[in-house]
Write a structure and sequence with these properties.
Length: about 350
């Protein structure tokens, strides 16, 4: 059996741990052979791959990014795209199955290719933690740790200058990173896409905090909307899947807070720093387990499924179920955090 692994979509810490886990388990337990497609689906449609052996994956677990590279290429586009061309490419190279490590877009593409008869197993990854099939995706915990440290640092400078600071974190359409980093760092309010809030409410929180002699620190998820906005703020155009590139809502909020409260306000956008560097221990373990389980799923021919964390166990879930809906922050989780706002 020869397996092709790809890492696709926005990168995140832990991708290399998946590759290592899959290759080592595949070699030792099943005697499989591996190649890695370069730059995600782009390597599949352009037939660009490298051999992956024990030597190549040595010491990989702690390394950030992905040794295979990543892209947001759509595998249904271009000359080598689509199920027929991909099947032919696999046959030419003796590849029996693909392990696709990616987020919602990647798993949706994997589901369509699997429906067309290609042997695929998915592995969910994203710092956003928005894949419903899995309780947690690797990359998320590392992003939360990075954001928490940043908010802790922001707090000391905010206190020194008696300023309000709005810290923007990633997360696209869901507020998980904001919720967890905001709770961990004790932010005075957490603003998430699932719960639009008025600027008056935000200003009120700022004033309440200030009256206690503290400097208000707010965490806002990039997809957050004020109750007057119909869409999340985006001014950077579209990505390869025609989705708006987000970012910049903190820059919008800070001057409004200052105008309404008279409290000097600043904004900080953490951006891609949340996706960079070494995975934390939790993500290394989760990613390694998922990589190993993906190879077990290949051995069991569970085509059209993705491996996923359910409680403390790794299970397989159909790609159809995994891509049905996004995992957003439940109302109760928001309300729980909101009890401490202001
Ligand atoms: O999905 C992961 C993510 O980091 C989002 O949180 C963010 O909106 C997006 O990717 C950024 O994409 P890009 O790396 O293409 O700028």
């Amino acid at each position: 059996m020869k397996i092709g692994i790809l890492t696709s979509g926005g990168d995140c810490p832990g991708l290399n741990s998946v590759i290592r886990g899959a290759v080592l388990k595949g070699l030792d337990a099943y005697g499989y052979e591996f190649v890695g497609f370069l730059q995600g689906w782009r390597g599949v449609v352009e037939e660009r791959m490298v051999p992956l052996d024990r030597e190549r994956v040595r010491g990989l677990s702690r390394l950030g990014g992905t040794i295979l590279g990543s892209s947001r290429t759509n595998p249904f586009e271009g000359e080598g795209g689509g199920p027929e061309a991909i099947s032919a490419m696999m046959a030419r190279n003796g590849i029996d199955a693909i392990v696709a490590v990616g987020g919602e877009g990647t798993l949706t593409a994997a589901r369509r290719l699997s429906d067309a008869g290609i042997n695929i197993i998915g592995v969910p990854k994203t710092i956003d933690n928005d894949i419903d099939a899995t309780d947690y995706s690797f990359g998320f915990q590392t992003a939360v740790e990075i954001a928490t440290e940043a908010i802790d640092r922001i707090r000391t400078t905010a206190e020194s200058h008696e300023r309000c600071i709005v810290v923007e974190v990633m997360g696209r359409d869901v507020g998980w990173i904001a919720l967890h980093s905001g709770m961990a760092a004790g932010a005075h309010a957490i603003l998430i896409p699932e719960r639009p809030v008025s600027i008056e409410q935000i200003a009120e929180w700022a004033v309440t905090v200030r009256k206690r002699g503290r400097a208000p620190v707010f965490v806002v998820s990039e997809g957050f909307r004020l109750d007057t906005m119909t869409e999340a703020h985006s001014h950077k155009g579209l990505d390869a899947f025609n989705r708006p590139l987000m970012g910049g809502i903190a820059d919008q909020l800070a001057p409004q807070i200052e105008a309404m409260t008279g409290i000097e306000s600043r904004s900080t956008t953490l951006g891609h720093v949340q996706r960079g560097g070494e995975p934390c221990a939790y993500d290394r373990v989760l990613a390694t387990r998922l990589g190993m389980a993906a190879v077990d799923a290949v051995a069991a021919e569970k085509w059209g499924t993705t491996v996923a964390l359910r409680g403390t166990e790794i299970r397989t879930v159909s790609l159809a179920e995994a891509t049905e809906r996004l995992k957003s922050v439940p109302v109760e989780r928001y309300e729980e955090a909101a009890a401490l706002f202001g």
